[in-house]
Amino acid sequence: MIPFTLLQLEAFVAVCRHGTMTRAAQALRKDRTTLSELINCLEIDLGYALFDRQTRPLSRTPSGDRLYRQAVLFLQEAQAFGGIASQLAAGEGQQLTLSYDVFIPHSMLVSLSAELAGQGVTVNLRCEPRLQGELALAEGRADIGIYQALNRPVGQSFSWQTLGAIEFAVYASPALFAETPVTMMALASHTQLLPWDFMPEYLAQRLQIADRTQSVNERELLIALLRAKQGWAMLPTHFFTQQRVGVERIETVMGRKGMLHPVVALWQPGKVGHTTLRYVLDAAERNFTA
């Protein structure tokens, strides 16, 4: 048996956020006596105090501190549950918006979309740079994001999970370089084609070798430029699951083993129902590790 109610948790979180019983009661549109009773009953049921009543504004006890974030997450999950339950009651299928960057394998997205469709979930897909995707997640225009990992914290507003890794390798016309394995100096002396409008700093540190670059954000045109010996590119190996005439993976002094870059999923806690979220993450991870 769970020793608390949603109303008690809602009251607890409101007092934490507003600092006094009076302001919390106003925010929840309850009278102060009712809210105080909810907090008192919660503390009795739990067996310990959540607030230090000697301070103004009220401060949380160590136990209250430990429970606060969990209470917030619990309420967010309850809100997501309520939204899904309302959709089912109205006979509506669930809609889910997935944001992803240009390097995420299309095969994984197709499989994921098909699997979720079988569960009555329609996946809307939007390709965008990660920074734009994080803004879409924060503003509620996207539910889950799948991107290359950054070398920085994601912040408290997002939860995250590593899904796998994407392998990168050098691709070019076999006639572009005179000798193989190609040296770093040879790569630096030729134009590097970039499949985006600008080079994000976190990718530049890992993928940019040449000083002279040319951006091409349309994949087939980039392949055509490679074929025409206009430069070389560091690209995900899954771009070339089918053979491209006139374009090959080039052996370099780095060896045949490509560069691996981790991929992560981001989401805001409580914005997606737990069952759907778990299904999406498990399906995405399966596709990366297959």
UniProtKB/TrEMBL annotation:
Domain HTH lysR-type, first and last residues per copy: 4-61
SUPFAM superfamilies, sorted: Periplasmic binding protein-like II, Winged helix' DNA-binding domain
Keywords, alphabetical: DNA-binding, Transcription, Transcription regulation
Alphabetical list of Pfam families matching this protein: HTH_1, LysR_substrate
GO molecular function terms listed in the Swiss-Prot or TrEMBL record: DNA binding; DNA-binding transcription factor activity
InterPro entries named in the record: LTTR, LysR_HTH_N, LysR_subst-bd, WH-like_DNA-bd_sf, WH_DNA-bd_sf
Domain of life: Bacteria
Family statement drawn from the similarity comment of this UniProt entry: Belongs to the LysR transcriptional regulatory family.
Protein name, as recorded: HTH lysR-type domain-containing protein
Organism the protein comes from: Izhakiella australiensis
Taxonomic lineage from the root: Bacteria, Pseudomonadati, Pseudomonadota, Gammaproteobacteria, Enterobacterales
